[in-house]
């Protein structure tokens, strides 16, 4: 990840628990290391790194806010501490959802059940006529996003002394704040004029020029206004100034007639699905309602305000940095150069007892046993291999087998065929994989 304007290099704060598992304020890694070396504390969890004290300590607290930037595929999280020197991010993470995997699994199950009814087997009637959905029902692929964020909010509430939440949701009338007398057409040109549209296009084109791939600077019309083009979002792309000047008032086909591959790429991006946008719109208010149940104050802010705060402070684009810049509290926040914890939803296995071939017939059967030799798929383990071709030390997420020869998934790949005797459990599986 690129550096922010603040060149200070820091690590995520370490979470601290009292002997009765009540939370204390997070401490810097150096202090946690000294307490571990002195025997005053022990490691409670590896991810997120948490220590537990061996003797009771005082509970001095400072305002600590969990800030969220909900997304369809990735949700940014940042813990912001408000001290005497101002607001500062002390912990950052990016939560990668598996909503698309949930949707694909449900589609596959539906297809298999439909095929079963059409074959000459024991009749299994459809049951959709006697099913009712409760009020506020969301599809499982969307509800998954809400539940995983709430699950991590509860976890952080147990490990830290949270007292408020902040999430990206609604728009504030910032023009009214700056100019109480603003009326009617004066709203058309203000500080955030065009920010929502520009922010969407920057996200869609990843901040790059659609024509050459360099850093985007301007919003450009595919079909020029002088030739009947409109301001519809499908007719807009991000462009650098050089390409914008070269294209002039040509259409997209005229400008890229000698570059058919690039033309097809832009046309395909024009027709990109808005499923991710719809997923965020459908889950935002449900997530807000769930956060309010904690009983803490919940601040909200619009996407335009988040983008404006980040650009004003000259921070780079990242999900956890966007989370830190959410709302009015994101106007002045110090974001050091952290290595955010990458949290990926992996699930906890499934209940399918037999696998099927491409025609839907069972061809493989699974054992009912999940734990082999004291290990379970998904455990975070350390393997110190002293013999064979794979000599070395490894840390990662394991996949177990009944034979005792396990696979270890690392950040950059996997190592297969490691015997069980070389493994040591660091953290039991909890449905997530972790990396930096």
Radius of gyration over all CA atoms, rounded = 26 Å
Strand content: 25-35%
In total, the number of strands is 23
The separation of the N and C termini measures: 11 Å
Mean pLDDT: 84
The helix content, as a percent range, equals: 25-40%
Which outline best applies? Answer: globular
**Largest β sheet strand count, sense and barrel closure:** 8 strands, mixed
Which regions contain 5 or more consecutive residues with pLDDT less than 50? 1-8
Structural class determined from secondary elements: alpha+beta
Total helical elements:
11
Give a written overview of the molecule.
The chain has 436 residues and is of the alpha+beta class. Helix content is 28%, strand content 27%. Strands 5, 6, 7, 8, 11, 12, 13 and 23 form an eight-stranded mixed sheet that branches. The protein has a five-stranded antiparallel sheet with strand order 21-20-19-18-22, with no helix packed on it. Strands 2-1-4-3 form a four-stranded mixed sheet, with helices on both faces. The longest helix is centred in the first third of the chain and has 20 residues, at 99-118. The termini are close together.
């Amino acid at each position: 990840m690129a550096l922010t304007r603040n060149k200070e290099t820091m690590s995520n704060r370490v979470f601290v628990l009292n002997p009765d598992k009540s939370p204390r304020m997070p401490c810097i890694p150096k202090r946690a290391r000294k307490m571990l070396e002195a025997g005053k504390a022990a490691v409670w969890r590896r991810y997120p790194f948490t220590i537990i004290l061996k003797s009771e300590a005082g509970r001095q607290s400072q305002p600590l806010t969990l800030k969220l930037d909900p997304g369809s595929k990735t949700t940014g999280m940042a813990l912001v501490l408000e001290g005497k020197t101002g607001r500062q991010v002390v912990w950052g993470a990016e939560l990668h959802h598996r909503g698309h995997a949930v949707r694909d699994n449900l589609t596959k199950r539906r297809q298999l059940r439909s095929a079963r009814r059409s074959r000459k087997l024991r009749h299994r009637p459809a049951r959709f006529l006697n099913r009712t959905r409760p009020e506020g029902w969301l599809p499982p692929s969307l509800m998954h996003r809400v539940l995983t964020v709430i699950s991590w909010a509860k976890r952080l509430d147990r490990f830290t002394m949270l007292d408020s939440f902040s999430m990206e949701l609604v728009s504030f009338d910032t023009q009214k704040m700056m100019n109480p007398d603003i009326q009617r057409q004066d709203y058309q040109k203000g500080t955030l004029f065009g920010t929502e549209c520009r922010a969407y296009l920057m996200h869609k084109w990843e901040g790059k020029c659609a024509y050459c791939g360099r850093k985007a600077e301007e919003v450009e019309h595919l079909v020029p206004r002088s030739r009947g083009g409109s301001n519809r979002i499908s007719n807009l792309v991000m462009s650098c100034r050089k390409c914008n000047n070269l294209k002039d008032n040509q259409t997209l086909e005229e400008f890229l007639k000698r570059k058919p591959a690039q033309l097809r790429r832009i046309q395909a991006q024009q027709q990109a699905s808005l499923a991710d946008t719809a997923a965020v719109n459908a889950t935002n208010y449900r997530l807000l309602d769930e956060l309010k149940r904690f009983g803490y104050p919940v601040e909200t802010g619009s996407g335009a305000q988040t983008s404006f705060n980040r650009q004003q402070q000259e921070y780079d684009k990242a999900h956890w940095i966007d989370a830190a810049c959410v709302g009015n509290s994101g106007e002045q926040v110090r974001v050091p150069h952290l290595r955010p914890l990458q949290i990926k939803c992996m699930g906890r296995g499934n209940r399918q007892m037999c696998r099927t071939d491409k025609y839907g017939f069972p061809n493989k059967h699974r054992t009912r046993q999940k734990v082999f030799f004291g290990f379970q798929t998904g455990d975070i383990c350390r393997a110190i291999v002293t013999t064979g071709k794979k000599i070395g030390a490894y840390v990662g997420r394991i996949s177990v087998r009944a034979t005792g020869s396990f696979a270890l998934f690392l950040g950059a790949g996997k190592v297969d065929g490691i015997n069980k005797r070389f493994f040591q459990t660091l953290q039991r599986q909890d449905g997530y994989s972790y990396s930096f």
